[in-house]
Inverse folding.
C-alpha cells in the first residue's frame, strides 16, 4: 500500500532531476560601445551590433539539438539615455531584438534567455563591466532607480507575455555594488523589483536571478568585491508569487575564474559544491548561463566534468556555454586569444577552425542531453 503511493513520487523526483535547457550564448547585441562615453550609441545594426545569425541558429538547433540560447542586449540601446531607463523603448532596437528572440523561440521552438548585458549598471557602458551608475545607488543622482528598473522589466515582460519560450534573465553579472548600506541587499532589492515588474505584467515564464561577485558560483557563499556580503545571505529571500524563479550562475575554469586564460585549473564540481548545498537547503534551482574553457585537452576534461556534474545534481536545470555570436569574427570570447568563438563557420585568429570545431565536439556535443525540454512554458520542470 505504502509502496504504491511512493512509486509515483519516485518517478516525479526522477523527472525533476534533469537538465531542461542546454545551449549557447549569442553575444553581439551589446558590442561596439567601448571607448569614450557615448561610443557606439545608439549604434548601427549589423555593423556595431547584431544579435544572431539565423543560419547558425539553424545549425545549433537542427544538427546539434540544443534548445537554449542566451541573447544579449544593451539597456542603453533599448532605453536610450535621453529617455532614461524605464518603459519607453527604442522601437527599432526592440524590433531587431524581438526578431532574433522570435526566430529562436517561435520559428525554431527553442528557449531564449533574455539578457540585459549590463552588470546592474545603466548610463555608461563605455568601460563595461566597471563604468555606469549602479542601479539603485541612492547616493548617485545620475543613477537609475530601482523603481525605474521595475518599470523597464514590466514593459519588457509585457512585450513577451504571450511567448512561452522566453526566460527572463534579470541582469548580467552584478558586482561591486558598494553603496551606503548593504551592497548585496541592493541586488536583492533590484532582483525583487524585476520579479515584481515581470509578474505584474501577467508573465509566468521562468526568471533567472543573479547574485553579487559577477554571479560567480565558486564565491556564492563568500564575501566579494570590497566587503560585499555573500550572495547566499540574500538571494534566498526573493519572493516570486508563482515560484518560477531560479538562480543565474556563471563559472569559468581558469586560475582566477575570469575566463581570460587558455588553461583550466579550477575544477567546476568542487568549486560549485557549496553553492549546490545552499541551493538544496533553500529548495532552489539554478542555471549555469556562462562557462567556458580553452582549446586544449585539459580544458575539454574540465568542461566535461563540469557539465556532467550539473547533470548529476538535481539543483541544476540548465546551462549555456560562452559564446557564439554573429560579430566575433576571429576574436575569442574567452579562454585565450587562440580559442576563437563558438560561432559555426568561423576561424580563430590563427586562421584555424574556431571553438565550434574543437571545444564543442570534445566537451559539449557528447553532453547534450537527448531529453531536453521541448514544449510548454519555461519553468523549473
Ligand atoms: C534607435 O535605434 C536605431 C537603430 O540602432 C537608431 O538608428 C536610432 O537612432 C535609435 N533612436 C534613438 C532615439 O536612440
Ligand atoms: C554610489 O554613488 C556614490 C556617489 O556618486 C559613489 O561615490 C559610489 O562610488 C557609488 N557606488 C558604486 C558602487 O558605484
Ligand atoms: C598552460 O598549460 C600548459 C601545460 O601545463 C603549459 O605548458 C603552458 O605554459 C600553460 N600556458 C599558460 C598561458 O599558462
Ligand atoms: C565551502 O564552504 C566551507 C565552509 O564554509 C569553506 O571552508 C570552503 O572554503 C568553501 N569552499 C569553497 C570552494 O568556497
Ligand atoms: C551566417 O552563417 C552562415 C553559416 O555559417 C554563413 O555562411 C554566413 O556567411 C553567415 N552570415 C553572416 C552575415 O555572417
Ligand atoms: C550571453 C552570455 O553568455 N553572456 C556572455 C555572452 O557574450 C557576451 C559577449 O560580450 C559576454 O560579455 C557575456 O558575458
Amino acid at each position: 500500500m505504502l509502496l504504491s503511493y511512493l512509486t509515483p513520487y519516485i518517478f516525479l523526483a526522477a523527472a525533476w532531476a534533469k537538465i531542461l535547457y542546454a545551449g549557447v550564448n549569442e553575444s553581439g547585441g551589446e558590442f561596439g560601445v567601448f571607448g569614450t562615453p557615448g561610443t557606439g550609441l545608439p549604434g548601427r545594426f549589423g555593423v556595431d551590433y547584431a544579435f544572431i545569425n539565423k543560419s547558425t541558429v539553424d545549425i545549433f538547433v537542427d544538427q546539434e539539438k540544443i534548445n537554449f540560447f542566451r541573447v544579449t542586449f544593451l539597456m542603453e540601446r533599448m532605453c536610450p539615455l535621453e529617455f532614461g531607463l524605464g518603459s519607453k523603448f527604442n522601437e527599432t532596437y526592440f524590433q531587431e531584438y524581438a526578431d532574433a528572440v522570435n526566430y529562436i523561440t517561435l520559428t525554431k521552438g527553442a528557449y531564449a534567455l533574455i539578457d540585459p548585458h549590463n552588470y546592474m549598471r545603466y548610463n555608461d557602458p563605455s568601460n563595461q563591466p566597471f563604468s555606469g551608475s549602479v542601479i539603485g545607488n541612492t547616493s548617485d543622482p545620475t543613477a537609475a532607480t530601482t523603481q525605474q528598473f521595475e518599470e523597464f522589466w514590466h514593459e519588457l515582460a509585457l512585450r513577451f507575455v504571450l511567448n512561452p519560450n522566453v526566460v527572463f534573465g534579470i541582469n548580467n553579472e552584478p558586482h561591486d555594488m558598494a553603496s551606503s548600506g548593504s551592497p548585496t541587499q541592493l541586488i536583492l532589492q533590484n532582483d525583487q523589483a524585476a520579479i515584481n515588474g515581470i509578474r505584474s505584467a501577467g508573465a509566468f515564464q521562468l526568471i533567472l536571478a543573479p547574485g553579487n561577485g559577477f554571479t560567480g558560483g565558486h564565491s556564492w557563499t563568500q564575501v566579494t568585491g570590497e566587503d560585499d556580503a555573500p550572495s547566499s545571505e540574500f538571494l534566498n529571500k526573493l519572493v516570486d508569487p508563482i515560484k518560477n524563479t531560479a538562480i543565474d550562475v556563471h563559472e569559468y575554469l581558469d586560475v582566477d575564474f575570469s575566463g581570460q586564460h587558455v588553461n583550466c585549473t579550477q575544477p567546476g564540481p568542487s568549486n560549485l559544491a557549496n553553492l549546490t548545498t545552499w541551493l538544496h537547503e533553500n529548495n532552489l534551482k539554478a542555471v549555469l548561463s556562462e562557462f567556458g574553457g580553452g582549446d586544449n585537452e585539459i580544458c575539454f576534461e574540465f568542461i566535461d566534468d563540469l557539465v556532467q556534474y550539473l547533470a548529476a545534481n538535481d539543483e541544476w536545470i540548465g546551462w549555456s556555454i560562452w559564446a557564439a555570436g554573429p560579430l566575433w569574427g576571429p576574436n575569442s570570447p574567452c579562454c585565450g586569444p587562440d580559442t576563437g568563438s563558438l560561432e559555426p563557420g568561423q576561424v580563430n585568429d590563427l586562421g584555424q577552425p574556431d571553438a565550434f570545431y574543437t571545444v564543442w565536439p570534445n566537451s559539449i556535443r557528447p553532453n547534450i542531453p537527448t531529453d531536453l525540454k521541448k514544449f510548454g512554458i519555461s519553468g523549473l520542470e
Observations:
- The first strand starts at residue 21 and ends at 26.
- The CA atoms of residues 150 and 194 lie 5 Å apart.
- The first helix runs from residue 2 to 16.
